[in-house]
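note to self — DONT lose this again. spent like an hour looking for the file last time. sequence + predicted structure for the chain T wanted, 124 res
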Amino acid sequence: MSKALKYTFLVHIPVAAVFGALLFLLPGRFLSWLGWAPIDPIASRLLGAAFLAMAWGSFRGWRAVEWSRVAILVEVQVIVDVLACVALLRHLLVGHWPVVPWVFFVMFLIFAIAWIVALLRRKA
């Protein structure tokens, strides 16, 4: 497995874990601190749970040594991040939003590119 993919997993772990924990434990406070309110606490906690699960998957991917152990995880990360970018962009382009959703969009985009590059390099 490439060092770049290992590094991507390593960076993804704290990002997903921190955002996941904050959304899971303090959804209203966390998003209001960012100027992103009102929110649905149930949906926010579900999203937090998904981020925590992705952090765990990235931890397992970081520890793996064979591509076969992480291939499905990388494919799922590509799908999640690309769909998140599409969902965010759909709203960002037609409304007036604070900077925070744009930051999330950029983070999802960077991770999507990193996962896609890892996937394409492996298949080449």
